Structures are given as C-alpha cells and as structure tokens.
Amino acid sequence: QTFVHHLDLTAATLGATVMYISGSEMPKDVTVVRGNLASLLCIADGTPTPIICWLKDGVTLAPDRHLILLNLNTTLQIPQARVNDTGRYTCMANNTAGHASRHFNLKVLGE
C-alpha cells in the first residue's frame, strides 16, 4: 500500500523545493518467499527532480544480474530473492535543496 504525499516548501535562496518521499514517516516491512520477486518503490518529489540511489545496510547498491533498478531508480527489483537479500534497504533522494530517505526492512523467507 503506497500513499503519495507532496510537501511544497520552497527554499528561496536556492529556488529549489525541499524533497519529500512518500511513506518516509516509518520503515516499510516487506516479506517475500525465496525465489519470488521483491519490489521496493521509492516515490520522491522535489524541484529540481531528485536523483535516487539505493543502499543495503548502508552500502550503495549497483544494478547487476540479480538486482534491477527501473524508472529512474524509483523501483528496485530483485526478481529471484535469496535469503541473504534480507536487510535494511534505503532509498536516498538528492537535489540542490537537500536530501530525503526512506527505509525498507526486507525479509526473505526460506521455503
């Protein structure tokens, strides 16, 4: 369940909008069974358009055969989740006005 919220605060000196990430008030718990798709969605709002990156347990993630970033990095997908994918994922959105983040607690269950 995703709610889209917009916060329109203007930083006058920068001419940029302070960013807001939907659902950032609390971590989202996501549980999937091993071998299934895990999908995390990060909806960020700001002007200029924020650049999004993802971290797992504080380490920046890069896409590979196991992990896919879609839609300008707003969606992180793990097509065949493994138990060792369990962890705390963070969506970081940055622009000239600052940064915002959202945390996801992903748990991958063995069969």
Task: Provide the fold topology.
Blueprint lengths: L9 E2 L4 E2 L2 E2 L6 E6 L4 E4 L2 E2 L5 E6 L2 E2 L7 E3 L4 E4 L8 E9 L2 E12 L2
Parallel strand pairs: 4-12
Antiparallel strand pairs: 1-2, 3-6, 5-10, 7-8, 7-11, 9-10, 11-12
Structure commentary:
This is Ig-like domain-containing protein. One of its GO terms (biological process) is homophilic cell adhesion via plasma membrane adhesion molecules. GO terms for molecular function: axon guidance receptor activity. The chain is mainly β and about 110 residues long. It has one domain: Immunoglobulin-like, CATH 2.60.40. It has no helices and twelve strands. It has strands at about 10, 15, 20, 30-35, 40, 45, 50-55, 60, 70, 75-80, 85-95, 100-110. It has a five-stranded mixed beta sheet, with no helix packed on it. It has a three-stranded antiparallel beta sheet with strand order 5-10-9, with no helix packed on it. A hairpin with a 2-residue loop joins strand 7 and strand 8. It starts with 9 loop residues before the first strand and ends with a strand.
